[in-house]
Design brief:
- By secondary structure, this protein is α/β, with parallel strands linked by helices.
- It contains 13 helices and eleven strands.
- It has helices at 2-42, 48-75, 80-86, 118-121, 136-155, 175-179, 228-234, 278-285, 298-315, 329-344, 365-373, 394-401, 443-452, and strands at residues 186-195, 217-226, 237-243, 260-262, 275-277, 320-327, 352-357, 377-383, 419-423, 497-499, 504-506.
- It has a seven-stranded mixed beta sheet with strand order 1-2-3-6-7-8-9, sandwiched between helices. Strands 4-5 form a two-stranded antiparallel sheet.
- Strand 10 (497-499) and strand 11 form a beta hairpin.
- The chain starts with a helix and ends in a 23-residue tail after the last strand.
- InterPro entries: AB_hydrolase_fold, Fungal_lipase-type.
- One of its GO terms (biological process) is lipid catabolic process.
- This is Fungal lipase-type domain-containing protein.
- Belongs to the AB hydrolase superfamily. Lipase family.
């Protein structure tokens, strides 16, 4: 008995030592294999056949490495971080971006029926236990709303030599069809315009032509609603408002003034008055009878359409939600929009959510508290390297301290609202480590990193499926060995077409249905959904 009592601890120590040695050997083996794969994948001079053979072999080795990693992780949780680092092997090479037809892996994952969980995904519990690790259903839903905002950027006419600069290149009836977003099952019902000559920094596009579609307005987004089939999948009729941000570099925020405007005149007075940044307020509320597209403000246009859709579907006995999404400046407009909707549309009580990407602070503490009391749920997706979500605030106001003694007392005025999902651009193995951090504000970069995010302490998802090439649509952040052109997204031949009869390159005439018209701001018939 005494010998047994003495030997038992020794047996345990030997077993523990054996397990540690085995884990160390497996880690070293894993690290060595990963290093060989990385080195071989970057060595130049291979013949195309050898590259093809190695490409297949490396894929099989990656699968074997993943199986070994899972086995180690089951034995020891302490190894998760180091293994996650070792497994950050680039999944793609330049060969993966060659067109192979139907043999290529789809860029999207299957979408499950989320009708039984839609309230949690919409933020009823402030996304508790859904962000770390990130629930796959929530990832797909947030990505969907981000793609709606991206569609506004993708269809915006940027050309200052175009008489339609600042408008959409497509009418609302074919916007999603032209951009490949019909898969989401939504229909655009109204376009939103904002006045472009308000007193803000260079936030808007303007044409250099004398004759333009509008000298006063810019297209800022749209209202859309889920179709019958999509509504069954997501468990309710979902109304979406998508707001774009600015198209100028992020430096425009350095010109942002700290002055504020009262936002809710019916709210409390004195110290508790609700205020928002004056530039955001001007964009959202400005209107003029002398304009073609902004006889009503962006606020009026949006709220009129939201109320119409809510009343229509509520009368049919349907559950209705409102999801407002935006990027950058659009995230600020989304918060003000949500405030008004929650206050003025009682039928939406508890069903108003905001999904923002790289949004700045918008209002004061009273604005935040009032939004919370109205039941608005806000999910802020933020890149760690993006400076815009940090503004305006303490860092911004330090610059103003030397300029204005009054503004120096406003350091704590601006407050963020809601729940934050923080991402890291450099968690992606496809992004250059010496990239311009200003690119971290780009929406496609946000969607790429979001697709690869699993949890804070793990690396980029190996099974992330969103198209990596999209990162370089309007940036230069992808690694050079992937051979994806920088800033590749643009209109073919910069808008010129070849007239085959005359042999001249000319500017095409817009189709009549794609020419902006004040009448096009009206609502789309709902029966077509």
């Amino acid at each position: 008995m005494e010998n047994a009592l003495v030997k038992t601890p020794l047996r345990k120590l030997r077993r523990r030592r054996t397990k540690r040695v085995w884990r160390l050997k497996q880690k070293l083996k894993l690290a060595w294999k990963s290093i060989k794969i990385r080195v071989k994948s970057h060595l130049p001079g291979f013949l195309s056949t050898k590259k093809h053979l190695f490409h297949i072999k490396s894929r099989k080795e990656e699968q074997d490495l993943s199986q070994v990693a899972r086995r180690i992780c089951k034995i020891s949780n302490d190894s998760t971080k180091s293994l996650a680092f070792l497994l950050q092997l680039p999944k793609y090479s330049a060969d993966d971006f060659l067109d192979r037809g139907d043999l290529m892996t789809p860029a999207t994952s299957p979408r499950e029926n989320i009708s039984k969980m839609w309230r949690e995904l919409h933020g009823s519990n402030d996304w508790e236990n859904l962000l770390d690790p990130l629930h796959p259903w929530l990832r797909r839903e947030v990505t969907k709303y981000g793609e709606f905002v991206e569609s506004v950027y993708d269809s915006l006419d940027f050309d200052p030599l175009s008489e339609f600069c600042g408008s959409s290149r497509y009418n609302r009836n074919k916007l999603f069809e032209e951009l490949g977003l019909t898969k989401h099952g939504y229909k655009v019902t109204k376009y939103i315009y904002a006045m472009s000559h308000v007193d803000v920094p260079q936030w808007f596009l303007s044409s250099a032509m004398r004759e333009t579609w509008s000298k006063d307005s810019n297209w800022m987004g749209f209202v859309a609603v889920s179709g019958d089939r999509e509504s069954l999948r997501i468990g309710r009729r979902d109304i979406v408002v998508a707001w774009r941000g600015t198209v100028t570099p992020t430096e425009w925020f350095m010109d942002l003034r700290t002055s504020k405007e009262p936002f809710d005149c019916e709210g409390e007075h004195g110290k508790n008055v609700v205020k928002v940044q004056s530039g955001f307020f001007s964009i959202y509320k400005s209107k003029s009878e002398l304009t073609r597209y902004n006889k009503e403000s962006a606020s009026d246009q949006t709220m009129e359409e939201v109320k119409r859709l809510v009343n229509f579907f509520k009368d049919r006995g349907e559950e209705v939600s409102l999801t407002i999404t935006g990027h950058s400046l659009g995230g600020a407009l989304a918060l003000m929009n949500a405030y008004e909707a929650a206050k003025d549309v009682p039928a939406l009580s508890g069903n108003v959510s905001v999904i923002s990407f790289g949004a700045p602070r918008v209002g004061n503490l009273a604005f935040k508290e009032r939004l919370n009391s109205l039941g608005v749920k806000v999910l802020r997706v933020v890149n760690k390297q993006d400076i815009v979500p940090k503004l305006p605030g303490i860092v911004f106001n330090k610059v103003l301290n030397k300029l204005n003694p009054i503004t120096s007392r406003l350091n704590w005025v601006y407050r963020h609202v809601g729940t934050q999902l923080k991402l890291d651009v450099f968690s992606s193995p496809y992004v250059k480590r010496d990239s311009d951090l200003g690119r971290a504000h780009n929406l496609e970069v946000y969607l790429h990193v979001l697709d690869g995010f699993h949890r804070k302490k793990s690396g980029f998802r190996v099974n992330a499926r969103r198209d990596v090439a999209s990162v370089n649509k309007s940036t230069d952040m992808l690694l050079d060995h992937l051979r994806i052109p920088e800033f590749w997204y643009q209109v073919a031949h910069k808008g010129l077409i070849l007239n085959k009869q005359t042999g001249r390159w000319v500017k095409p005439v817009r189709a009549p249905e794609d020419i902006p018209s004040p009448l096009s701001t009206g609502p789309k018939p709902i029966y077509s959904l």
